[in-house]
Recover the amino acids of this structure.
């Protein structure tokens, strides 16, 4: 297995975008969900995208927004990667054809793993993200998935592992889930939306250390 890819989500400033890219992030997540403490507006998003170096991609994160609206935002900002982090139906994946869609699933039980499998029988997103289920909160909770749920996940070509990842636990989580990419937000922050350079560096090192 090659080196795992790294996404740092909830970027809110050009300074943080440049910093995480320089430290090894492959993707940065831009949050457009109004209820999130990491939400940004399109002007800020445009500035962040312009600040990214070649090789680091921006992902727009949306929660239960109409696919036409998601597409319009993506077109205005020049995004080709979008993440759907709510209860979007499989038809939304087809409606966003031409964009690379990452579909997030909140996993709290084995039945959630089964439901994810049924969803993926009807839709074919570019990548699949798994996050911890916390009632009433779509993500960014800092909660980890139970080990038995990680081991029950199907083997997917592009599995993105989220949910409470930190520099201290990412290596162990990688061993259990064998994902294509890991996604971190609160685990490398000094405050919501503010990334800590030392934590980001430690996370990248832990994720990419051989073992």
């Amino acid at each position: 297995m090659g080196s795992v890819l790294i996404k740092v989500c909830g970027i809110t400033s050009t300074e943080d975008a440049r910093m995480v890219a320089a430290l090894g992030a492959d993707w940065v997540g831009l949050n457009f969900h109004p209820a999130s403490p990491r939400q940004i507006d399109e002007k800020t998003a445009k500035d962040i995208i312009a600040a990214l170096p070649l090789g680091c991609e921006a992902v727009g994160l949306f929660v239960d927004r109409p696919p036409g609206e998601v597409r319009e935002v993506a077109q205005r900002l020049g995004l080709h990667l979008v993440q759907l982090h709510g209860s979007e139906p499989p038809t939304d994946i087809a409606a966003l054809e031409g964009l690379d869609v990452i579909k997030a699933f909140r996993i709290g039980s084995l039945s959630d793993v089964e439901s994810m499998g049924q969803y993926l029988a009807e839709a074919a997103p570019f990548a699949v993200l798994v996050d911890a289920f916390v009632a009433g909160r779509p993500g960014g909770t800092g909660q980890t998935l139970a080990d038995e749920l990680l081991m029950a996940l199907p083997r997917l070509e592009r599995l993105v592992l989220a949910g409470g990842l930190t520099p201290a636990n990412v290596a162990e989580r990688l061993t259990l889930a064998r994902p294509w990419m890991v996604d971190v937000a609160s685990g490398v922050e000094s405050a919501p939306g503010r990334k800590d350079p030392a934590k980001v560096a430690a996370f990248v090192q832990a994720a990419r250390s051989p073992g």
Summary: Residues 110-122 form the longest helix (13 residues). The radius of gyration is 16 Å.
